[in-house]
Write a structure and sequence with these properties.
This protein is an alpha+beta fold. The protein has eight helices and twelve strands.
């Protein structure tokens, strides 16, 4: 007899597929996967090698969270076309899950980097850092827009880009360098939302990659103008040209209770002036 025609006990067949034999007994009871033979004398279930691909298909679908009812329906209508359709659906689901997990990982990484910055920063220091290009959702604002209206606009944008939770993104504000050079330190023109994964990037604001001046301000925003004056002085001393926008965001909101402990990170694109 061909070895592949030999019968295996339920224990042997279960061990071969890395499952408990009670699972096979349950599959038999619900009519999902029957043994090849049931010994009439002792009622023992036996399986053959040729049943392995069918069981592995069932186990794969279960691993993909396909319901028992769906698998039963497939098994009763088993065909290449039906399996292809079922796998198409599950691959699409898996792709969405992967994108979501990648976004969560990037969010966690950003929070982690903020905590590293908090633990190692010198609040008085102004430094030059390298940043990668990224895409931001932006909302135009001016001094006449109320806080309630800003919240409403942020909510609308997060809904538009299907952002599930607020913690899935970073938020901040922007002020143009031209305003800073005119000493208009409260002339904020945009709010920004940075979402880790954006399938559609057309029409978004590009925060350029390259070198940035980075500084920090502790406390509320009433005295942030003093920090900007220090930044402008630093740039002049080091022959740096500021460009584009200043990007502000809080980096310790989730670990403080009082506004006086709030730390704003300020980053402004730079290049060295020609001399």
């Amino acid at each position: 007899m061909n070895k592949k025609e030999k019968l295996l006990t339920i224990g042997q067949f279960a061990a071969m597929h890395g499952i408990n034999k009670k699972t096979l007994m349950w599959y038999d009871e619900i009519g999902l996967f029957k043994p090849a033979v049931i010994n009439p004398q002792n009622g023992y279930r036996c399986y053959n090698y040729h049943q392995s691909p069918i069981l592995e298909t069932i186990l794969l679908l279960r691993e993909l969270d396909v319901s028992i009812a769906e698998i039963q329906h497939f098994m009763k209508n088993r065909s290449a076309f039906n399996l292809k359709c079922l796998l198409d659906e599950k691959i699409a689901d898996l792709d969405r899950d992967i994108i979501h997990l990648q976004a969560i990982r990037k969010t966690l990484y950003n929070h982690h980097q903020n905590m590293v910055t908090l633990l190692t920063m010198d609040l008085s220091k102004i430094s030059i850092v390298e940043k990668e290009e990224c895409y931001l959702i932006t909302i135009d604002i001016d001094k006449d827009i109320s806080f309630e209206k800003e919240v409403e606009m942020i909510t609308a944008q997060t809904a538009k880009y299907q952002l599930g939770r607020l913690h899935d993104a970073s938020y901040g504000s922007m002020i143009s360098v031209s305003s800073l050079l005119k000493n208009k330190f409260d002339d904020y023109c945009k709010l920004f939302i940075e979402i880790p994964s954006l399938p559609q990037k057309n029409g978004l604001h590009i925060q350029p990659g390259g070198q940035y001046l980075r500084a920090f301000h502790k406390g509320d925003w009433n005295k942030i103008s003093l920090r900007y004056k220090e930044i402008l002085h630093y740039a002049k001393q080091h022959n740096l040209v500021l460009s584009g926008f200043s990007y502000e965001k809080g980096i310790n909101e989730n670990v403080i209770d009082q506004m006086e402990d709030y730390i704003t990170q300020i980053e402004i694109p730079i290049h060295f002036a020609l001399v």
